[in-house]
Amino acid sequence: MIPAAGFPNRQRLHFTRASPKPYICGLSLRPPEGYGRGEVNQTNCQEADFAGRSISLLIQPHETAERAGPAVRVEHLSLKYGGQVALDDVSLSIGRGSSFALLGPNGAGKTSLISVLATLREADKGLVEVAGHDLRRASRQVRLSIGMVFQDPSLDDRLSAEENLDFHGRVYGMPGRARADAIDRMLDLVELTGWRETVVRSFSGGMKRRLEIARALMHEPQILFLDEPTVGLDAQTRARIWAYLNRQRCERGLTLLTTTHYIEEVEDADRICIIDKGRIIAEGTPGQLKRELGQSFLHVVAATPADHAALLAAYPGAHAIGAETLAIPAGEEDFVAGFLARFGNRLREMRFEGPTLEGVFLSLTGRVLRDRTDGEREAQRNAGRRAGRR
Amino acid sequence: MNSFLPILRGIHGVWLREIMRATRDKGQLLGGVSRPLIWLLILGVGLNPYFRGEVFGEVRLVLPYSYLQFLFPAVIVLNIMYTSIQFAVSVIWDREFGFLREILVSPMPRWAVLLGKVLGGATAATGHGTLVLILARFADVTLTAPQVAQAIAYMFALSFALTCFGVVLAGKVRSFEGFGVFSNTVILPLYFASSSVFPLDPSLTRTQLVASYPEWLIMLIYANPITYAVDALRGILINFNQFPPQIGFGLVGIGMIGFFLWALRSFGR
Ligand SMILES: Nc1ncnc2c1ncn2[C@@H]1O[C@H](COP(=O)(O)OP(=O)(O)OP(=O)(O)O)[C@@H](O)[C@H]1O
Ligand SMILES: [Mg+2]
Q1: Domain boundaries, chain B
Q2: In this complex, do A389 and B95 lie within 8 Å of one another by their Cβ atoms?
Q3: A260 C-alpha vs ligand 2 centroid, how far in Å?
Q4: ipTM
Q5: A354/A375 Cα distance (integer angstroms)
Q6: What is the Cα–Cα distance from A168 to B6, expressed in whole angstroms?
Q7: Counting atoms of ligand 1 from 1, which one is nearest the CA of A104?
Q8: Which residues are within 8 A (CB) of A206 and not within 5 positions of it... i.e. 6 or more apart?
Q9: Number of residue pairs across A and B with CB atoms under 8 Å?
Q10: What is the pLDDT of residues B16-73, one digit of tens each?
Q11: What are the chain A neighbours of B13 within 8 Å (beta carbons)?
């Protein structure tokens, strides 16, 4: 952990743990001793050695960013499929260069919201501005400034990796040289250079996903929509991609809008928006949400089934997690002491969990947020494909 | 101008993808080669002796052409029809496997995407038509360079119109599986109910025609645009027309524009 005391102004101090080199974005601070303001301002992103760790400092031009307006502005957006409400009076604003996470259970409307923002679906009501352009009046400008990683596969699997990227570059109007450079760069980023000429059909799921991310970044969009982007990626690749995305945020103010089921990725976001049944039910920084809505839980495994029943009877508010574990809300100060006095010798395992986003999610929706299994995902993907067919 | 060049690049990209798809699809290529061979070598050669001369002691037809020569342009049109209308499969494929969304979030206007796709499909179909031209000497058709150029230009226009028609069909079909059957039920009746495999003798009056063919068939043939499309190509290749060739050219022109606009309405919705 970096001692925050080193930063005189602690506002929005934040770095991603996922990346091997942490990045600090959106800081408005007086640089620490030894880093004069002028020095830092020379480039947008400054490598600094701090507390023995290498850090990239971003001195974001706050004033200009604010003058340019938010990257995404949504006001009173509603969307229906037939009679079924998918989005209900959604309003939100995403600052430029920030990382915004949409969190919600299946069918919450995350993909629907992203589809509207990406001009794939027309909203029934409401105002949407993306990259400063009105969605209805300047959809071409909007589409030029966004990159999209779809939840469902969207590669042409009869083409090679390179041909997929080349197609993308052409369709985005990139000239030959820029296209070739971008292809090299992107294949390198997602470590598919060796697979350049291989037909995508023979790729693994994770490789396809990587290629899709590379493709979405290829034309250097201002805003990147990632609909559950890192499903099926191993931890190493995930870290690598997130490091790249964060560097892009630092260096050129890339804005990220992510939906994900990996809670640890959401924790790294600047802002989180929890959405359920088409409505926004909470929004704020991860810290805020945890402070305001989070609850501490005691995760316990009873020694015998009888103890299990006794625990349930004593704490009706407990949630069952799996077959054995119980999550007991541990709100009050001396809860743990009292609990131990009563049940201390009737437990097999016990773990204290401070306020987490999982807890926030649980208390807001009454559901546990967990990863869907792959089988379920596939079934849903097919169902979506069937529904999407006209 | 500023936004024109990128769009042109995009159209080229979409076109290129269709060409790659067509040249890598071995099945389609095989069909494109074997179909004309079967039609010309088996049907054409087989029926050639019966075309002219006496059938049961009665002269039926007085045409200065052999059946092979007569059939040759029609086989080109058939090859084009198959490839163009099968193009719908590419559109359905994009829609079913999610690639369409990748295209629709791109900054390319919808008309440009469709234009690129249709140009690609039309290029492939023209290629399959041109394949048949190589067989010209087997059908006793001698061609001059201007004739070949004219024929290819006309074939491209026809392919364009039919490819747009394929896109319209794709908008109406929900799944792949049915499309093969569906396309056959569209292509073959259209093809047979034109004067492609049997001639309407232009020297006969309508009353005389009715004497040799049933009325409903003649009605069908007159109402079928493929009749005129084949006829115009015959004019170019073997200098034989049953109708004024302008009708064929006009219909193809109208088809290009009409079907393109219709396809645009259904595309990507
Ligand atoms: N094409 C469609 N036609 C009809 N209803 C749809 C369609 N797409 C989505 N829906 C409905 O809209 C609601 C929101 O779906 P959406 O795909 O946006 O959810 P999501 O939050 O992305 O879920 P997931 O986590 O499963 O991806 C769901 O109830 C779904 O059934
Ligand atoms: Mg979704």
Answers
A1: 5-266
A2: yes
A3: 9
A4: 0.86
A5: 32
A6: 12
A7: 21
A8: A232, A233, A234, A237
A9: 84
A10: 999 998 888 888 888 888 888 888 888 877 777 776 654 445 555 555 677 888 888 8
A11: 166-167, 169-171
